[in-house]
Specification:
With about 450 residues, the chain is mostly helical. The protein has 23 helices and no strands. It is globular.
């Protein structure tokens, strides 16, 4: 007896998410999100509870710079083989296991450090968590990309983002619950269990076969200068010497400027319009998370239906339009329904964009240099928007007002859209269903 058509369509929609590669991406995302949470809101809560000066608390945000500059040491993870362990389980899994253990140790150290008795020790531990967490991200991103077939990039990117958000929120929530009952050292140690899904992914996925094939031919050169050139220069040269390499880099640098400026200023708008903390928590945090998760699911489905390039274009347009919704909120004023609609639409669009753009960045990576190239591309995608937010956003809001500011952020999104339209004419992207298609070279 044939299955009903509706059930068949549902099964076909779910099937890409329960394949081994995307399930492994979910596990990797769970592990990737937890170190970030330990030095973000969790550490802020702990320091505030200990009575640490607000200026000292906010200074801990500088630890996140290590995440922005992780591309500087990503070549080491790409090219250096760990003795003994790499020979037994493979280079990627050797780094994954080693950094998982390192992150667990650093987080436990951060939990044991007393901010009242020895704040410099807390600083050192937080920097260790940031460095090892960023390094953990490098190998997780590379391992995910190399373990997914090109036709799995959409579902895999979506599952990875689900994992990251669940891992980050779950580790933060677990730490708070345990700290209330057993203290912060036990809470941080308990949160280290979120590194274990990465080890489960290593068992599930094995050593990436695609990378093994990609690096089989070229041998590591001899001589220090040649080794340094092969480790640090070759990954960048491989990218910029492609026919459209510079245009792709310019697109990646510009495409999120408007979105980043808008998002990092939203809390200022909500405060200026007089929304209460409860309203912000309920809608910007709670409802926003639900909308993001829905957007990730929608993005994964659209990726499968439209293909990578058209899904990226749609996401760019939606993210630009979402800035107009903030302008509308600024124009209307204090209105909970309008705020909920604006926040919900922006988070939904960001969820779709996360899937499509992450898949695109993953596809761009040469499997010989995955860790280095993805670390560089992901850093370029956020660095300019964050720099402008920290240096000019406040002055622009003061001089233009919120309505015109958000109209400006919408205009700033257009160069990225136009550049991508140009790229679509030159790079059609991978066939939607061909698992063997090569990435750009």
């Amino acid at each position: 007896m044939d299955a009903p058509p509706g059930r068949s369509r549902l099964g076909a929609a779910i099937a890409p998410f329960v394949e081994r590669g995307p399930l492994g991406a979910l596990l990797l995302g769970l592990a990737s999100g937890f170190p970030f949470a330990m030095i973000a809101s969790t550490l802020t809560t702990r320091l505030a509870e200990a009575g640490i000066d607000k200026r000292a608390v906010t200074a801990f945000a500088l630890t996140f710079l290590l995440y922005n500059f992780k591309f500087l040491w990503a070549p080491v993870i790409d090219r250096v083989r760990l003795p003994v362990l790499a020979g037994r389980i493979g280079q990627r899994r050797a780094w994954l296991v080693t950094l998982a253990v390192g992150v667990m140790a650093a987080v436990s150290w951060l939990g044991a450090a007393d901010p009242v008795a020895d704040l410099p020790m807390v600083v050192a531990a937080a920097l260790a968590v940031a460095f090892l967490g960023a390094s953990f991200d490098i190998v997780i991103d590379a391992y995910r990309i190399e373990s997914l077939r090109p036709n799995q990039l959409g579902a895999g990117s979506g599952m990875s983002q689900y994992g990251w958000r669940l891992g980050s929120a779950g580790a933060g929530a677990l730490a708070l619950v345990v700290a209330e009952r057993a203290g912060w050292p036990v809470a941080y140690s308990a949160a280290t269990m979120f590194a274990l899904p990465a080890l489960a992914a290593a068992l599930l996925l094995g050593e990436p076969a695609g990378r093994s094939a990609a690096i089989a031919a070229p041998a590591m050169p001899t001589g220090l200068a040649s080794r340094l050139r092969d480790t640090f220069v070759a990954p960048i040269a491989d990218f910029v010497l492609r026919p459209n390499g510079w245009i792709v880099l310019l697109f990646i640098l510009l495409h999120k400027i408007g979105d980043t400026l808008a998002n990092l200023s939203l809390r200022l708008l909500l405060n200026d319009l007089g929304f209460s903390k409860d309203e912000v928590a309920a809608y910007d945090v709670g409802f926003g998370l639900v909308a993001t998760l829905a957007g990730i699911l929608a993005g994964s489905i659209l990726y499968g239906r439209l293909g990578m390039m058209r899904a990226v274009l749609l996401s760019l347009l939606l993210m630009a339009i979402s800035n107009l919704s903030f302008a509308g909120l600024a124009l209307v004023g204090h209105s909970v329904p309008v705020m909920a609609a604006a926040v919900g639409f922006e988070n939904f669009a960001s969820g779709i964009g996360g899937v499509a753009v992450v898949a695109y960045l993953s596809w761009l990576c040469n499997l010989r240099f995955t860790a280095t190239q993805y670390a560089l591309l992901s850093a370029l995608a956020s660095i300019l928007g964050r720099f402008l937010s920290g240096t000019t956003a406040g002055a622009l809001i003061d001089s233009l007002g919120f309505v015109d500011f958000y109209l400006l952020t919408t205009l700033l999104a257009l160069p990225g859209v136009l550049l991508f339209l140009w790229l679509m004419r030159r790079e059609p992207g991978p066939p939607a269903e061909d698992p063997a298609v090569a990435r750009p070279a």
